[in-house]
Design brief:
This protein has about 230 residues and is of the alpha/beta class. The protein contains 7 helices and 7 strands; from the N terminus they run E-H-E-H-E-H-E-H-H-E-H-E-H-E. The chain has a 7-stranded parallel β-sheet with strand order 3-2-1-4-5-6-7, sandwiched between helices. The radius of gyration is 17 Å and the shape is globular. The chain starts with a strand and ends in an 8-residue tail after the last strand.
């Protein structure tokens, strides 16, 4: 039986990933910061779902996750947990948002790397294994023609740099990585004006993950399979 661990699984894209892999017969380990009724209902309906508490902003919580997964094989890790930060953080006022900026970096950039380190033995047990990082087109330097969104953009650009380094560092372990752009998705973060629903986003990203291997490890790919410029 294939196994996957999904972070930030209590709602939105993360919850949809959980539903997809459960329906595909995988053993699913799902982390949450705050319990959500939909995730709890899934855990009652599927005995292949294990729920794990995780505060991605806390390195001790990440280390605890690693200990709780000791000896378990993982074929796939999906680093999905993320935050946007304050929407009113504009140029000229960033000095008021330094603490928020640091928190977003902790969750969006540092935590995915620490989680991957904490679960590296699990991924080695499951090798060839894959690690998918839910990034954003907003982290693309090339695509940034509108400015603003300093906190979120910089955290995702830094995450992409992490993914590129991991592609090299994990290659000899037969572990392959990808940075994913999920699209503008109708979630709490994406808002009601977003262009696609979670089904469209997740189904597309799953297809990208399935095609991931040594030949394309370290790439930045959108949910529709298109390469995203760095």
């Amino acid at each position: 039986m294939k196994s996957v661990l999904i972070t930030g699984a209590n709602r939105g894209i993360g919850l949809k990933f959980v539903e997809h892999y459960l329906n595909s017969g995988w053993q699913v380990y799902a982390t949450y910061r705050q319990e959500h009724q939909d995730l709890l209902e899934l855990s009652k309906a599927f005995d292949k779902l294990t729920l794990l508490s995780l505060d991605a902003s806390n390195p001790e919580s990440i280390a605890k996750l690693g200990h709780s997964m000791s000896g378990i094989s993982l074929n796939l890790l999906i680093n999905n947990a993320g935050v946007y930060g304050p929407f009113d953080a504009a140029f000229g006022e960033m000095d008021k948002h330094v603490a928020s900026w640091q928190e977003v970096f902790n969750i969006n950039t540092i935590a995915p790397h620490l989680i991957t380190e904490a679960l590296i033995k699990n991924l080695q047990f499951g090798a060839p294994a894959k690690v998918a990082f839910v990034s954003s087109k907003m982290g693309s330097m090339t695509d940034n023609t509108s400015g603003g969104s300093y906190i979120y953009r910089s955290s995702k650009a830094a995450l992409n740099a992490v993914v590129k380094s991991l592609a090299s560092d994990l290659a000899d372990m037969n572990i392959h990585v990808v940075a994913l752009h999920p699209g503008w998705v109708k979630t709490r973060m994406g808002g009601d004006n977003a262009m696609i629903d979670t089904d469209t986003s997740v189904n597309g990203m799953v297809e990208v993950i399935e095609q991931l291997g040594p030949q394309n490890s370290g790439q930045f790919v959108a949910f529709d399979g298109q390469q995203v410029p760095w």
